[in-house]
Design brief:
16% strand, 48% helix, binds D-ribose, 6 helices, Ribose 5-phosphate Isomerase B, Chain: A, 5 strands, alpha/beta
Length: 148
């Protein structure tokens, strides 16, 4: 898959480890985050990954900041984007199965590398279940339309 990844200064090391992990599996990973440990504003990376998905530059995205929270809030401001913050793989799997989240987010100050890999694996290997969830995602889209 072609996967976008974005991060702030707190997540450079974890981002690089996840890029290596995914590249070794044959994925192509495009970097939209910073490679510097100088302070970097996470909304820029969250928006960049979200825009890359909407532009079909990548199929899905991974966003990492200190907690995963700020960068997910930023990505979710972009129309059509569903970004889910997860600290464990069960939520990551359900974020794809029920919410069809195109972006998974986690915190470099919250999860270690092994947990981050488990989160990414669970989300990438899961499939959107459709069925009853289609209507619920349509309701989310309606909220977005009403408030733009
Ligand atoms: C940066 O210090 C920190 O605020 C950021 O990485 C993130 O945790 C925000 O949600």
């Amino acid at each position: 898959m072609k996967i976008g990844i974005g991060n702030d200064h707190s997540a450079v090391e974890l981002k690089n480890a996840i890029v290596d992990y995914l590249t070794q599996q044959g994925h192509e990973v495009i970097n939209y985050g910073t490679d510097s440990c100088e302070a970097y504003d996470y909304p820029l990376a969250g928006e960049a990954v979200a825009n890359a998905i909407n532009a079909h530059e990548v199929e899905c995205g991974i966003c990492i900041c200190g907690t995963g929270i700020g960068i997910s809030i930023a990505a979710n401001k972009v129309k059509n984007i569903r970004a889910a913050v997860c600290s464990e793989p069960v939520s990551a799997k359900l974020a794809k199965e029920h919410n069809n989240a195109q972006i998974i987010c986690f915190g470099a100050r919250i999860v270690g590398l092994n947990m981050a890999k488990a989160i990414v694996d669970a989300w990438l290997n899961a499939k959107f279940e459709q069925d009853r969830h289609i209507k619920r995602l349509a309701l989310i889209d309606q909220i977005e339309s009403k408030n733009h």
